[in-house]
Amino acid sequence: MSSYQGKAGLVTGAGSGMGRATALAFAQAGAAVVVADVNVKGGEETVALIREAGGRAIFRACDVSVAADVEALIAAVVSEFGVLSFAVNNAAVELEAGLPLTEVSEAVYDRLMAVNVKGVFLCLQQEIRQMALQGAGAIVNIASVNSYRPQLHQSVYTASKHAVLGLTRNAAVESASLGVRINAICPGAIETPMLDLALNQPGVVREDIIAYMSLNGRFGRPDEIAKAAVWLCSDDASFTYGHALAVDGGYLAR
Ligand SMILES: NC(=O)c1ccc[n+]([C@@H]2O[C@H](COP(=O)([O-])OP(=O)(O)OC[C@H]3O[C@@H](n4cnc5c(N)ncnc54)[C@H](O)[C@@H]3O)[C@@H](O)[C@H]2O)c1
Predict the structure, then answer these.
(1) Domain with 144 in it: what CATH number?
(2) What is the mean pLDDT of the chain?
(3) If you measure from the C-alpha of residue 20 to the centroid of ligand 1, how many angstroms do you get, rounded to a whole number?
(4) Would you state the pLDDT for residue 94?
(5) What pLDDT shows up at residue 3?
(6) Which residues form a coiled coil (predicted)?
(7) What is the pLDDT of residues 73-102, one digit of tens each?
């Protein structure tokens, strides 16, 4: 694996789940990491975990749906570490779990799209501008198997993850000539608080979901997504542009 020594970047939604695992993995690979989240406690815990393991990290509170927050986040990475070598746009919410489309409120639709789609859009804008100045950089957006397939009672989330792939591909095409590589990861069912939310719905049987979502009899682990992100942002992935990498236990293969 190419080295991340001397490199720095950010992970949004790094106070929990696969964002935390991703921040830890980049730090372990030698990068300085800016941990961004709306959840201050979770974000600071991630920083503490990185530092305990001998890595370099700082926390920045950031709501990715707010342009001024995102602008300040990129400025903080550059002022603290001098460069934005990589960015993982991972923050997202699922607010409609258990609700059929007909029951989803306008407020839930607006918030979900604001975080999951506008958040990725705002991050891409600021990250690409900075990386274009540098003439180099790599970005990974966390999409989902829902970018391809519907799931019961996840209509707005599914729409948001389709949009993340659209943003990824268009941004990749526009940014290659600037020296910026942009890709996506489509996780399957990964053991995180967000998955717990889906599993804790009435009538949902964990074993049935595992059998439906995975070819190897288990859910994925956050570190399995983290490793894919570290590879996609590294020079080892130097010919990979606009790709959507499924890390999904084979779910999309069926
Ligand atoms: N867990 C799964 O099975 C699964 C499957 C496919 C895709 N995903 C995607 O993976 C990514 C990570 O999900 P996870 O399962 O680790 O979820 P999680 O809920 O454990 O973590 C999400 C993090 O994002 C943060 N966040 C929420 N809104 C934010 C905002 N406006 N600004 C900044 N941070 C914000 C939360 O505070 C939290 O720390 C998400 O994009 C999610 O849609 C998850």
Answers:
(1) 3.40.50.720
(2) 97
(3) 10
(4) 97
(5) 86
(6) none
(7) 999 999 999 999 999 999 999 999 889 999
Q: Which residues approach ligand 1 with their CB closer than 6 A? A: 12-13, 15-19, 37-39, 42, 62-65, 90-93, 115, 119, 142, 144, 187, 189-190, 192-195
Number of domains within the chain: 1
Do 30 and 4 form a contact (C-beta atoms < 8 A)?
yes
Q: Angle CA(42)–CA(119)–CA(169) in degrees, nearest 5? A: 120
Q: How far apart are CA 125 and CA 201, in angstroms?
A: 36
Atom of ligand 1 nearest to the CA of 90: 41
- Identify the pLDDT of residue 168: 99
Residue 246 lies in a domain: yes
Q: Exposed, middle or buried by CB within 10 Å (0-12, 13-18, 19+), for 212?
A: exposed
Active site residues: 157
| Structural domain includes residue 59 | yes
Domain that holds residue 62: 8-188+220-253
Residue 164 Cα: closest atom of ligand 1 = 41
Distance, CA 9 to ligand 1 centroid (Å)?
Answer: 18
Residue 202: predicted pLDDT? 87
Give domain status of residue 199, yes or no: no
Query: In the chain, at which residue ranges do the beta strands (DSSP E only) sit?
Result: 8-12, 32-37, 56-61, 86-89, 137-142, 180-187, 244-247
Residue type, 220: G
- Specify the pLDDT at position 254: 94
List of the chain residues with pLDDT < 50: none
Asked if the structure places residue 209 within a domain, the reply is no
